[in-house]
Design goal:
about 400 residues; Rossmann fold; elongated
Length: about 400
């Protein structure tokens, strides 16, 4: 549904495209009575934030027209309001933009540079190509001045037109792939690599899965909207890049095509889409990263907005070899011993899948250490036994 506000001379002041179903769900969740009146007040508030005011008379007119759309069930009807005025946009305080404590919206925040996450980033061997591409993508999306500088340095002082194709994309990336393949570890540590590259601080906020809410109508939409508004405000006030990370993104961004999907979940997906679009339009220093084991379950409209989708797979032979070399340098393992460990962690007759990164780093090697402590040194034999006895995580099977 399109809502247009004109001044008394019929000059367009503001145009807004509204998802009517999502609007009514939000109205029902925010007010227990008269959702049409509530919806008109929500729209009025949004226009005021953008510098356009409505008198009480015009608000009543907006309410009548929203009621007409609601009764007809035809949300293709446009709404025109004539007589609006330009006002000074409302300045948001910390309390306004949060509308709740940050702990309700985010599991935690991480500031970079950060030595611990630098070590995590460096430990993710076998992902060099993804790392290099990801750092470039992130810098282009949240530090556009770096791309402009490159253009002028390499093209005789000009900002070439091709740069616009990069600047127009949503600052949104999706990491998809099997469990234990390093998606979340990379997403949480990439901020340090970005910080070191652009020589600026970077801050990451990890969106809490509690934003699903408690099932109350409109609650999930409210929480998601508040989270994105907070990220926007933080990015615009801090003066350095901000990252919003959503792990297990399919829990919030599941396709609205699913027959069994509850209307509250559909509204939540709509809120996610609006949040992504809001960040793209209102800030140049925020990056959104979604991680998921079920890439095909993510709503198509969400996937379409991603500037890039990175797919993560289990480590191949060379990558597993690099892991053993990196984590066991003091053992001076022979080439044939490393090859044996690589073989034991690959596919076999009884198992059609290899070990994941986390299977090797968080299970196999620790199991070998535990079996050796406290009386024996860590040896190839202990590692070999651990490789034979450790049960790797089965691949995530999508239905």
């Amino acid at each position: 549904m399109k809502i247009c506000i004109y001044d008394k001379k019929r000059r367009l002041l503001k145009e807004r495209h509204v998802d009517f179903d999502n609007l009514m769900l939000e109205a029902q969740g925010k007010f227990n009575s008269d959702p049409v009146s509530a919806a008109s007040e929500i729209i009025q508030s949004q226009f005021e934030e953008e510098g356009v005011g409505l008198s009480s008379k015009l608000l009543f007119e907006l309410q009548k027209k929203i009621g007409k759309v609601a009764s007809s069930g035809d949300d293709s009807l446009g709404i025109d309001i004539i007589g609006g005025v330009n006002i000074k946009p409302k300045k948001h305080t910390q309390g306004d933009r949060l509308d709740m404590n940050q702990s309700e919206l985010f599991e935690r925040s991480i500031e970079y540079p950060n030595i611990a996450f630098k070590e995590i980033y460096n430990s993710l061997v076998g992902l060099d190509a993804a790392k290099e591409r990801l750092v470039k993508e992130a810098i282009f999306l949240i530090s556009p001045e770096a791309l402009e500088k490159w253009s002028k340095d390499k093209h005789k002082g000009k900002k070439i037109f091709a740069v616009k194709t990069v600047e127009q994309r949503s600052p949104f990336l999706i990491f998809g792939g099997d469990v234990g393949t390093g998606k979340t570890a990379l997403a949480e540590s990439i901020g340090n690599a970005i910080s070191e590259t652009i020589h600026k601080a970077v801050k990451l906020f990890r969106l809490s899965i509690m934003t699903r809410g408690g099932g109350i109508v409109g609650e999930m939409t409210k929480l998601i909207t508040a989270a994105f508004k907070t990220i926007e405000a933080e990015a615009n006030s801090l003066g350095f890049p901000v990252i919003l990370l959503l792990d297990e993104a399919d829990a919030l961004a599941q396709s609205r095509e699913a027959v069994q999907m509850h209307h509250e979940d559909r509204a939540g997906v709509n809120a996610l889409i609006q949040g992504i679009d809001r960040i793209r339009m209102n800030t140049k220093t925020a990056l959104i990263i979604f991680c998921t084991n079920r890439l095909s379950a993510i709503d198509p409209a969400v996937r379409r907005r991603a500037a890039d989708i990175f797919e993560f797979k289990r480590p191949a032979k060379e990558q597993r070899k690099a892991l053993f070399i990196q984590y066991l340098p003091e053992l001076n393992l022979k080439t044939e011993e490393i090859e044996k460990l690589v073989s034991l962690t690959g596919e076999s007759n009884n198992r059609k899948y290899a070990f994941s990164y986390s299977d090797i780093v968080n299970k196999l090697i620790p199991n070998a250490v535990f079996s050796s402590y406290p009386n024996k040194a860590l040896t190839f034999e202990a590692l070999k036994k651990a490789a034979q006895e450790t049960i790797p995580t089965a691949p995530f099977m999508e239905r």
